[in-house]
Structure formats: C-alpha cells, structure tokens
Amino acid sequence: MNSNELRKTFLDFFEKKGHKVVPSSSLLPTDPSVLFTTAGMQQFSLYLAGKKDVISDFGSCHLASCQKCFRTDDIEEIGDDTHHTFFEMLGNWSIGQDESGYFKEGAINLALEFLESIGLERKRMHITVFGGEGDILKDDEAINIWKTKGIASIRECSKKDNFWGPVSLTGPCGPCSEIHYDRGESFGCGRDDCGPNCDYCKRYVEIWNLVFMQYFKNESGDYELLNQTNIDTGIGFERLLSIIQGNNSAYDTDLFTDVISEIKKMSLNEDERAYRIIADHIRGSVFLIEAGVIPANVGQGYILRRLIRRFIRYGNILGLKKRFWVPLVEITINKYKDIYPEINKKEIYDIIEKEEDRFSLTIDRGLKIISEVNKDLSGKEAFDIYQTYGFPIEMIKEELDKKGISINDKEFELEVKKHQEVSRIGAEKKFGGVGTGENTPSLHTATHLLHSALRKILGEDVHQMGSDINNERLRFDFSFSRKMTPEEIKEVEDLINSKIKEGLKVKKEIMSLDEAIKSGALSFFKEKYPEEVSVWTIYNEDSGEIFSKEICAGPHIDDISKLKQFKIIKEESSSSGVRRIKAII
Q: How is the chain split into domains, by residue range?
C-alpha cells in the first residue's frame, strides 16, 4: 500500500462508518497563540470545548480528517528515523454524545477494526493506559475494554505519558490509550523490561493515540467531569506508512524515496543524514510557502528562511550545484498535487530562488566576519552577527568550533526571544492595533480598499505584511513574488476609484474573535488579538455587496466618497517575496 492508498483507505473507512470527512485546515492556525497547526484537533478545538455547535457546522458529530501539520521543536533532530518538520495527521472524532455518539468502546472498536483491515495483527498490539495520579482515578474502564478485545499486553503509565491536557491552564482533557506495534525481536534491546516507551530501542512503535476527553481542568487546577465528552484520536501518517511498508523510517517510504534518489544522483559526497535533511526541508518549505509564509527574520517567516538555508547548506556539503533543489521541488509538488491541489507551483520556485541568492551573499559576508572572531562569544554577540548578517546560528557554531571558540547558547535564545517580542510590538503598530496617533482615518480606510483591490486583481494569495500611515500618505506591504506591471497598478487604482464613486459605506461591528473569523473577516495570523475585536465592513448600501471586511482597531471614515481620488505613487520591493506600495488620496 503506497502513501496515497493508505490516506484514502483511512478516510474511506471512516466515511463508511458514518463520519464526515473534513478537509485539512491551513498550516497557519486561526489561534494567534501558536505558530503553526501542530495537530488534527486544532481546527475542532472550539467544538471539543463546547463553544461551537458541531452539528450546525458539519452536519455530524462524527468527523475524520487528514491534517497538514508542522512542528518546529525538533529541527535539529531531523535526519534520524522519526523526526519531520511537515507531517500529516490522520484522526477521527466523536464530539459530544447524542444517541449516535460513541465514547471509549466505540473508539477502541473502530481503531482495532481499521488497523486489522490494513494488515496489522492484534497479537502484536501493546496498549498503554493512564494508571491514575493525584485525584484522577486510573482508567479502569478503558483497561477492561481492551481486555475484552483480547489484548494481553496493557501497561499502566503516568499522567505525563497517558493523559492529554490542555495547552493553557484550563480546558477539556482526559486519559488516553496509546496503541504500540511490536516490530519484532530484531528491533529490540533484549532487556527483560523492554516494552512500549522503551528508552533503549525502537521495537515498539506508537501508532495511534485515543484521547478520552471526560474532564475539564478549571482555573484552580482541579479536574471536573465534563458535561460533554469527546473522542479525539491521532495517527502519525508517516509513522503508520513506514510500518505498513515494512521500513524502519518514513524516509524509506514512497513519500521520500524519489527525492532522496535524485539527491544521491547529483551528490559528490555520501551523507545519509544530509539526504534526509534536504528532503524534509524541501517538503516543509513547499508547504509553508503554499500556506502563504515568506522568508523573514521573525515568526513563521524565520522558520521558512531557516529551512531553505539549511537545505541549501547541506546541498553545499554534498557538493550540489546552485539551483539543485529545482527538480526536488518538482518531485515533491507532483507527489502531493492531487491531494493538496492548492499548491502554487510558480510562487514556490520564485521564493526559494530569491532566498538562495540572498543566502549566497550572506555566506560570503558571514564567513568574513567569523574569520575575524578570536574569542568566545556571548549570546548577544552571536545574535548580533546573526541579526546583522543573516548568518545561520548553526553555521556560526560550526565555523567557530573549527577555531575552538564557543557560544553561550542560553544567552543566544534569550536574545532571540527579546527580539521577537520587540518585533511583535512593532507589528501591532504596523497593523493598526495601536499607535495610529494623528494618522487620518481616511488613509486608514484607503488601506483596506487597497488590500481588497490587490487580492481581487493579483489573487487571494496576496496578504498584508505590514502598513504605515502618516498625514500625507499610506505605505502598504503585501506578499507577492514579482514586480507589478503598469497595467496591474492601473487596474488596482481604477477599481478603488470606482468604489469611491459608488460611495460605499463603512460599518463597524464589535464581536468575538471566533465570530469575526467565521464571518469571513480578514485577520493576520502572526498577530495576537483580544477576545473581542472590531470588524470593519466596506459595502454597497443598495446591493449589500461587500468589498472589504477586516479585523482592525484603527479609526475609519463612514463614507468612501469622502476619499475623492486614490493614487499609487510608488510600487517597489520591500524584502524577499514582499512588495511595497506608497499611495495618496
């Protein structure tokens, strides 16, 4: 069974079992407190918490999905058998319990039936369960159910291993049962106590986590029984695929073999870890760019820049030529284009190419600076080199290691966090959250018109990346990979001026952030919003047609005709993959 067949088999199985198959949500979550979507349950979090009606929105309390995910904690670990940046998560949910709902026994039955349908043997399945801790009782209910299903190997574990808790202080939570699969003695360590979660070998692989949400952790840290119980399950797609195909690692499956084979053909040197890093980072970069991320020095853009520069750096180690990544990107896109047709091929190439060119200059400058260092560096000194020259911290360390010079890593991480906080505050000002001061409401409203017009003329991949307003002009930064043509600039101007002549109206509504996003209001995922936000809608009063709808805390005019006329005075590059417009009214 190849990757496409396994993905389809999972979704088809649960659809036949009465589940609504839900498309993957974006890698950029609506929750501004997290950088990326890291699990399948994130798009359902408000339903699991009982804050949204799952039947109203999906027509079923039973859901299934294959979710695009991205994690950044283990970038340094990429290259081993198990870690990836981008990955996919298979999952099924039963949210709330009406007459058709299921809980522990239903989830366990479905899991066993699906795994056996794809050829896995029940006798090789080993289960870990929550063994109780503090005021929370052992999950005897789940233990008894597993026993009735003929599972002999059941290991009780701590809260750390087998209790799913909320990310924040409060929220729904509960015990979980993890299904581990025994790959055989040849993978074992030979110790008498070897079993699931063994620290010495990889014989037992966790393939499925079944979370039984039955508690609510309150503000006092106490656990109360939930009025609404839920099932939330997750399978690491790459991990399951590697077991199905009989491989030690997902890097040996059809998800990666074509890319790695091509890398080997081009390489002058042999380095299995480098092959894997390049393959992983190219896949991760493709999906981040598809989600709308562009290279930058902070936030989501920093992660993309880091991935691109890392795979180029490892390409250099293998002796690969400039633009070596082009056929690898092509293979990756072809692998996923039928599953995720939203992948924008041309934009991916353009952004990576520009970043490679910038990185080439960075390497030359950085090596010159590093050659002049002759003492151990504090975290701040290392960060200044990184920030000023864009020289990756990994390369700074490698070059200094050659000279026997070290860096204070903890201080460096503190400097990164300080810089990100300063950048966040600055971004709030750019996006109109604070600091508008004496800027005119007219220009602020014109910014919304410009944003909408650009998306209508250039495509919905255009997103606001920043703005600045003074009493004379507006400045607007937006994601776009090339210079606008004179014809496109005129089209944008003409569209805005036609709306000014129509005399569109502007209305402000106060609502919750969830309601605002659900209503279609544009938001900026890198920003942190309060629970209650202002939504500004620009619309035709007669027809009701909406031209623009955005979350914004800035001041606005009530009638677009007051703008008289809109004129773009300059269109230029702001940074890699970002254009800048200056305009007046």
A: 3-252, 267-428, 435-584
